[in-house]
Amino acid sequence: MVEAAYIQKVCVVRAKEVVVDAVSRFSSDDASFVDFYKKAFRELNPDYPKFFKMDALSKLAVLAAEYLLEGESLDDLALVLANRSGSLDTDVRHQAAIQHEGEYFPSPATFVYTLANICAGEISIRHGLQTENAFFVSENYPIDTAFSYTEYLLKSGKASQVLCGWVELFEEKYEAVLYLVSPKGTKKHTAENIKALFA
Predict the structure, then answer these.
(1) Could you tell me which residues come within 8 angstroms of residue 78 by beta carbon, excluding any fewer than 6 positions away?
(2) pLDDT of residue 108
(3) Domain boundaries along the sequence of the chain
(4) Which residues pair with 19 in a beta bridge?
(5) Across the strands, what pairs with 20?
(6) CA–CA distance, 114 with 2 (Å, rounded to integer)
(7) Backbone angles phi and psi of 50, in degrees to 5
C-alpha cells in the first residue's frame, strides 16, 4: 500500500515531438504521423517488431509509454488511460472495408483494434504487465476520475505505481500526455497538479 503518491515522470507526444520531463527527446519535421512514430520509436532502438503491426492509437500509446518507462521499474504497474475518440480512427477504416457489399473484405487485423482499451493491452503485452487497467472515453481528460481511481489502486495495494494519461488520435491529429504516479518524486499527486499537465 502506497501512503504518499507523486507524479514521478511525464511524457508528452504532440506536434512531431516527444518531451520527457520538459526535455525534448525526439523531434521531426516529417509531415505524417506514420513517419513520425516510426522514427521516434526507432530512436530508442527497441527490439519489438510487433509495434509496426498495431493500429495508430496503440502505436501512439506504446510510443509514449516506451519513453516514459525507459529505465523505470515496472513492478506492480497499473494503467489508467483515457481519450476523446475511443477507437474511431480504426473504426472508420474498418467501416470502409465493409461499406460495399460487393467488396466486403473486413480485415481481422483491423477489427481487433476496434476497442479503445486495446492500446492499454498493447502496453501491457509490451512490458509484461499483469495488473489492473482502465480506459475512459471522455470529452476531456477526466482528471477527478483518474485521480480517484489511481489513489484507490495505490492505497488498496492493487498497484504500487500507475501509468496514467491521455492518448488521443484521429486521422493526423494526435496527442499523448502520460505520467507515472509512484511513491517517488517531489510533485504531489493531486488533481491540481494533474490539471497543470494539460494546461
Answers:
(1) 129, 131, 132, 133, 150, 153, 158, 159, 161, 162, 163
(2) 56
(3) 6-197
(4) 12, 24
(5) 11, 23
(6) 35
(7) -60, -25
The rounded distance, in Å, linking the Cα atoms of 72 and 59 is 20
pLDDT in the model for residue 138: 93
Q: What number does CATH give the domain 6-197?
A: 3.40.47.10
Q: Is the pLDDT of residue 116 over 90?
A: no
> What does the pLDDT look like over 51-71, one tens digit per residue?
998 888 999 999 999 999 999
Indicate the pTM of the whole model.
Answer: 0.89
- Dihedral, 55, 86, 30, 11 alpha carbons, nearest 10: -100
Concatenating the DSSP letter of every residue in the chain gives --SS-EEEEEEEEETTEEEETTEEEEE---SSHHHHHHHHHHHT----GGGGGS-HHHHHHHHHHHHHHTT---TTEEEEEEESSTTHHHHHHHHHHHSSGGG----HHHHTT-STTHHHHHHHHHHT--S-EEEEE-SS--HHHHHHHHHHHHHTTS-SEEEEEEEEEETTEEEEEEEEEES-SSSB--HHHHHHHT-
The x, y and z cell numbers of residue 46, run together, are 527497441
